[in-house]
From TrEMBL:
It comes from Bifidobacterium scardovii. This is HhH-GPD family protein. Residues 43-204 form the HhH-GPD domain. The keyword Protein transport does not apply. PANTHER family: A/G-SPECIFIC ADENINE GLYCOSYLASE/ENDONUCLEASE III (PTHR10359), DNA REPAIR GLYCOSYLASE MJ1434-RELATED (PTHR10359:SF19). SUPFAM superfamilies: DNA-glycosylase. One of its GO terms (molecular function) is 4 iron, 4 sulfur cluster binding.
Amino acid sequence: MRTNHLPAPERIESLYRTMAGALGPTGWWPADITFEIMVGAVLTQNTAWGNVDRSLAALKAAGALEPHALATMEPERLRNLIRPSGFYVNKSRTLQSLSRWYEERCGAAPEGAATIPDAELRAELLGLFGIGGETADDLMLYVFSRRTFVADTYARRLFAFLGFDVPAGYSAFHKAYSPAVLGTSLSVGDLQEFHGLIDEFGKAYRDEEAKGASFLAAHRTASLASRP
């Protein structure tokens, strides 16, 4: 039976150090306040960040970038404010569901979730309307400061380029790689930066040829050489 070729914790740490030296610091996630990260994590689903910026600017101008304001806003008004981000009907519903949960469960502060175990917190987030695995992990990492792996498209492309096996689907990819990521000594801050580095790398080196000529070429060679 074929053994899956996955990165070991030490390989992930080495990858992080190399990327941080070449591309860091990224300063990701960009936001003025924590709640802005929450809103941005929802709005960025299936759209470019420039569109998210326009929606966030509209919410700020309306004085609505605050949990209670979003939770109680008239849905049609909220849809109009976030229209630039697309899928505004579902996203408005998600924002209101998330805002109500954040108020009621956490007292509208990340510290309010401090006693909730990681697995339980992630399950609660996934139980909210419109919150999928990637958004839940964004929130876990950047809002609630939990060590987690954001198994997004850029991460998938990176690890596939490096010669590792990447399971299909977000959930399977996250489940397969999380033990190695959490087995590293990388802190929450490091993992936040790692996510930013992965995304910046993916934007800078878009195709396989560009990736192959990048500073990560040696990591790919080492990974392929270690395949069982």
